[in-house]
Amino acid sequence: MRANDWHDPRWQAEAHSWIRESLAGIGTPVTGDIEETRVRPWSVTHKAPTAAGVRWFKANTTDCAYEAALVQALAGWAPDSVLTPIAVEESRGWLLTADRGPTLRESLPDDREAKLAAWREMLRAYAVLQRTLAPKAQAMTALGVPDMRPEVLPGRLATMLAETPVDGGVDLTAYGKWCAELAADGVPASLQHDDLHDDNVFPGNRFFDWGDAAVAHPFSCLLTALGSAQYFFETTPGELHGLRDAYLDVWSDLAPAETLRRSATLACRVGRVPKAAAWQRAVRDAALPVEEDFRTAAAYYLSEIGRPTPV
Fold first, then answer.
1. Which of 53, 74, 192, 247: disulfide with 123, CB 3.0–4.6 Å?
2. What is the architecture, at CATH level 2, of domain 9-98?
């Protein structure tokens, strides 16, 4: 039996047995059928009914299995900003959490200004969480969270290009200079979600879904966050700058605004390498056939390194 074969009856039986034993052990036994609700090549989610409400099970493929240990650690370091797991099986990358209701995206009113205000608050809250977690950078990499700090990114990029050639190549010298500038800007490395948007956070700004996360320059979270805002809201440049500045305001004691904005731009540029690496991890040893868009995502992000960023 493959460790990541979500549809193998033996894998499902083991997972469901663990779910039932874990929930029975804390006095909330499963009261009905456990159902698969979301499946991807890199992860699967099942829903288990209990008398105390729905419980959610998530499993990741081997390269993303660090999420389980990370979630458990985050619950101790920042309990008001994340989900506290009910049970964790670190060796297999399994975790159980309680239902938190609709996500922020599902809760937002149908009003553009209200949505943008909620996004600004979400980004501020995430920046506060990153500042809280910055002293835990080494502890997070010890848990298996990928190290994507600026100092190591040129080497990561060279390795990735050897495995995933990009048409036209990448200017490694320029990339190295961007990384060196970021490494010297005085902003400490922290947890970079790498899939930060309003569907991966609950109202009250509790963040979840850490399967793409890395320890990196914190501002690189803006690559996906602002890209998502562009996609979902068709944001104007001014609105994007407002979202960026709401996030950067939390870091305003470290450098002048223009310096922080420069770092945000650089972090989005170099952040395409961690994003490509996240896609590589996601499809390596995938549990299901991988669609073309997923298979080529790493090469796409590498090819974008020299292109303009959202801000």
1. 247
2. 2-Layer Sandwich (3.30)
Q: What is the Cα–Cα distance from 23 to 29, expressed in whole angstroms?
A: 5
* Domain boundaries for CATH 3.90.1200 within the chain: 106-303
**Whether this model's pTM surpasses 0.90:** yes
Model confidence pLDDT, tens digit, residues 274-284: 999 999 999 98
pLDDT in tens, 216-239: 999 999 999 999 999 988 899 999
The beta strands (E) that lie in 16-133 are given as 35-39, 43-48, 55-60, 87-89, 94-98
**Bridge partners for 190 per DSSP:** 216
Residue 282: exposed, middle, or buried by beta-carbon count in 10 A (0-12, 13-18, 19+)? buried
- In our burial notation (b when 16+ CB lie closer than 10 A, e otherwise), range 214-224 reads bbbbbbbbbbb
Q: At 201, which helix (H) or strand (E)? A: strand 201-202
**Six-digit token string for 169:** 């190549």
- Residue 61: closest CA among 211, 258, 179: 211
